[in-house]
Amino acid sequence: MGVRRSGTTLEPQISEAAALSAAACMFRSLGDPARLAILRHLALGEHRVVDLTAHLGLAQSTVSAHLACLRDCGLVTSRPQGRASMWSLATAPELLDVLAAAERLLATTGDAVALCPAYGEAATQ
């Protein structure tokens, strides 16, 4: 990785391969239906794990594991409130933009993604 001069500051250059790898990692973090459901619910505001488990019908350990993944990816954050933690979106505007763009793309492509032999619904069964 080299250094590129931008105006009067030096910025590290990120290779295209590294940038694409990071993007693929981000999309993998969004690739689980339960994590997407958690993110959509957190778009409504802060929630405790117990609130998310009740809303999503998932086990507490499952929700906690997904929240840890999303936190490690920088998508959610938490703050203590008493003995619980309040979870929220870390970068709400950007994440909501990505989710809205995905919905627009799905509306455009129709069932193509669901029917894809490599990544569609039949491939995940």
What are the SSEs and their pairings?
Blueprint (H helix, E strand, L loop, with lengths): L2 E4 L2 E4 L3 H14 L3 H10 L6 H8 L3 H13 L3 E6 L2 E6 L2 H18 L2 H4 L10
Antiparallel strand pairs: 1-2, 3-4
Task: Walk me through this protein's architecture.
The protein is an alpha+beta fold and 125 residues long. The protein folds into three domains: 1-30, no CATH class; 31-90, Arc Repressor Mutant, subunit A (Orthogonal Bundle), CATH 1.10.10; 92-125, no CATH class. Helices cover 54% and strands 16% of the residues. It has helices at 16-29, 33-42, 49-56, 60-72, 92-109, 112-115, and strands at 3-6, 9-12, 76-81, 84-89. Strands 1-2 form a two-stranded antiparallel sheet. It has a two-stranded antiparallel sheet with strand order 3-4. The longest helix is centred in the C-terminal third of the chain and has 18 residues, at 92-109. The chain is globular and about 45 Å long. InterPro entries: ArsR-like_HTH, HTH_ArsR_DNA-bd_dom, HTH_MetalResp_TranReg, WH-like_DNA-bd_sf, WH_DNA-bd_sf. Residues 15-110 form the HTH arsR-type domain. Keywords: DNA-binding, Transcription, Transcription regulation.
Instruction: Please state the second-level CATH architecture of the largest domain.
Output: Orthogonal Bundle
CATH superfamily of the largest domain: Winged helix-like DNA-binding domain superfamily/Winged helix DNA-binding domain
**Percent of sequence in beta strands:** 15-25%
Kindly report the CATH topology of the largest domain.
Arc Repressor Mutant, subunit A
Report the order of strands and helices: EEHHHHEEHH
Domain module tally: 3
Low-confidence segments, ≥5 residues, pLDDT <50? none
Instruction: Describe the sheet with the most strands.
Output: 2 strands, antiparallel
Shape: globular
Count the strands? 4
The secondary-structure class comes to alpha+beta
